[in-house]
Design goal:
The chain is α+β, with helices and mostly antiparallel strands. It folds into two domains: 3-242, ATPase, nucleotide binding domain (Nucleotidyltransferase, domain 5, 2-Layer Sandwich), CATH 3.30.420.40; 250-432 and 464-495, ATPase, nucleotide binding domain (Nucleotidyltransferase, domain 5), CATH 3.30.420.40. It has 17 helices and 23 strands. The chain has a seven-stranded mixed β-sheet. Strands 3-2-1-5-14-13 form a six-stranded mixed β-sheet, with helices on both faces. A hairpin with a 2-residue loop joins strand 17 and strand 18 (294-303). It is globular. It binds adenosine-5'-diphosphate and SN-glycerol-3-phosphate (G3P). Adenosine-5'-diphosphate is lined by residues 10-13, 263-264, 307-308, 310-311, 323-324, 326, 409-411, 413-414, 417. Residues 259-448 form the Carbohydrate kinase FGGY C-terminal domain. ADP binds at residues 11, 15, 264, 307, 410. Its EC number is 2.7.1.30.
Length: 495
């Protein structure tokens, strides 16, 4: 029997999941790693942690399954996107911690780019807005702040990559410096229409192009993981950013289909087909996947804090020990208290895009306690999703957005949060049987390229729903609650 190993390198943990020849997950290993917050709004990872947790979880998953490494036909890599790593071409040593997608340190740099009138040019090429979220200004920050970095990069001694590139480089023993089109599309340096790095933007940001990786399809030959790492030489045949991999795992292959993933943040992607759609409502245009040289585009709404609000209840407020406790708390909350949490802990993403805002809570009384705060945290995720879906519907009126939302990610395990989501968006919410959708998506890419897994149509037909949540909230209550949320957002933005 042959297997496919999916590596899901996420924001808070690394997971490796082994799928058998029938695309069923048979073994799974997960390791968390430290988050570093050197200053307010800064978020870093040690790249070595990302590498060691990758190797350790891969080895554990193979061991757990009791198979020989030589039975792994292919590796797929999916990853937290936008996060920037720069490393030495010879030694492989990173020259700085990874600057994580949530990091806001380049807010001033972005403001200067907007003030000097460059945003339209950048949006036209990349489909993105000028925001610290994306890789470009983070890469520039490293080149500006690490002694001698720009000179070394110009000499060809340093390499840049998102996390996928860094893992490919290390797995192949420095033989391959590559990424895929979905990860490239998040750098703010890649022309999503022409399908290549933008020399105009690289020049504007003073980024030497020789440090950029080769860009390939999502299902392609990304080299071989060395045998001394995993016990056998294993080809890497699939790569995609984690939100795009989830779009694949949810089989959103048809224009109008959409999914929303609830991990640290929340990311909704709407398949818009072969033509990029320009948003009038501050959503992003991005590449959903690229197969056979042909990109399929998506509209994306990105929210920075979803499950992270639950983590804050656990680690910041310390009112829960475990994320799952929010269910019982939300059920026990006083229904007469209308507490609204605006979790703009690292500013606002779509559709407001304000890196300087910070979180706020409204409607607090002396009676407000852990239950009401937990309920407000879960509700905030539903409200934010409604903001995105309203923007998508306005942008995509011609074809129409499918009314059912497919959900996945750690927080989609919360029945309370998913029911509220369905209530506030007034649409059915479908949770699939395989909730490791991100890993499944990239496993499918790698397995399909290896000739082990079926084509797109057969794969789409294998998608199975576990639970459907349907709206039960009174329409007047829905309208009143959403209006309060919108007021709370406006107040937070203007604070
Ligand atoms: N039962 C639950 N209820 C609410 N939130 C949950 C639950 N289980 C997990 N989460 C949240 O989901 C997030 C983890 O999801 P995951 O998909 O692993 O994220 P990531 O890939 O960003 O690391 C955490 O922020 C956690 O707080
Ligand atoms: O690691 P996740 O699952 O929170 O995903 C992070 C996103 O890719 C950031 O754009």
């Amino acid at each position: 029997m042959s297997y496919v190993l999916a590596i899901d390198q996420g924001t808070t943990s690394t997971r490796s999941i082994l799928f058998d020849g029938e695309m069923t997950p048979v073994a799974r290993a997960q390791e968390e790693f430290p988050q570093h917050f050197p200053q307010s709004g800064w978020v870093e990872h040690d790249p070595i942690d990302l590498w060691t947790t990758t190797v350790a979880t891969c080895r554990t998953a193979i061991e757990q399954a009791g198979i020989s490494p030589s039975q792994v036909a292919a590796i797929g890599i999916t990853n937290q996107r936008e996060t920037v790593i720069v490393w030495d071409r010879i030694t492989g040593a990173p020259i700085h911690n990874a600057i994580v997608w949530q990091d806001r340190r380049t807010a001033d740099q972005c403001r200067a780019l907007r003030d000097s009138g460059h945003e339209q040019m950048i949006t036209d090429r990349t489909g993105l807005l000028v925001d610290p979220y994306f890789s470009g200004t983070k890469l520039r920050w490293i080149l500006d702040h690490v002694d001698g970095a720009r000179e070394r990069a110009t000499n060809g001694d340093l390499l840049f990559g998102t996390v996928d590139s860094y893992l490919i480089w290390n797995l192949t023993g420095g033989a391959v410096h590559a990424t895929d089109a979905t990860n490239a599309a998040r750098t703010m340096l890649y022309d999503i229409r022409k399908g290549g790095w933008s020399s105009t933007i690289c020049k504007l940001l003073d980024i030497p192009m020789q440090m950029l990786p080769d860009v390939k399809d999502c299902a392609a030959d990304f080299g071989r993981a060395r045998s001394d790492i995993l016990g056998a030489e294993i080809p890497i045949f699939g790569v995609a950013g984690d939100q795009q991999a989830a779009t694949l795992g949810q089989a959103c292959f048809k224009p109008g289909m959409l999914k929303s993933t609830y991990g640290t943040g929340c990311f909704a992607l709407l398949n818009t087909g072969e033509t990029p759609v320009v948003s009038k409502n501050r959503l992003l245009t991005t590449i959903a996947y690229q197969l056979g040289g042909n990109p399929t585009y998506a509209l994306e709404g990105s929210i920075f804090v979803a499950g992270a609000a639950v983590q804050w209840l656990r680690d910041g407020l310390q009112i829960i020990d475990d994320a799952a406790q929010t269910q019982a708390l939300a059920e026990a909350a006083d229904p007469h208290q209308d507490v609204i949490l605006v979790p703009a802990f690292v500013g606002f993403g779509a559709p407001y895009w304000n890196p300087d805002s910070r979180g706020a809570a409204f409607g607090l009384t002396r009676a407000t306690g852990p239950a009401e705060m937990a309920k407000a945290a879960l509700e905030s995720v539903g409200y934010q999703t409604r903001d995105l879906l309203d923007a998508m519907s306005a942008d995509w009126q011609a074809t129409g957005v499918q009314s059912t939302l497919r959900v996945d990610g750690g927080m989609s395990a919360s029945n309370w949060a998913m029911q509220f989501l369905s209530d506030i968006i007034a649409a059915p919410v479908d949770r699939p049987v395989i909730q490791e959708t991100t890993a499944l998506g990239v496993a499918w890419l790698a397995g399909m390229y290896a000739g082990l897994y079926p084509d797109q149509d057969e794969f789409a037909a294998s998608w199975v729903r576990e639970t459907q949540f349907t709206p039960t909230m009174d329409p007047n209550l829905r309208a009143a609650k959403y209006e309060s949320w919108q007021k709370a957002v406006q107040a937070t933005l203007s604070f």
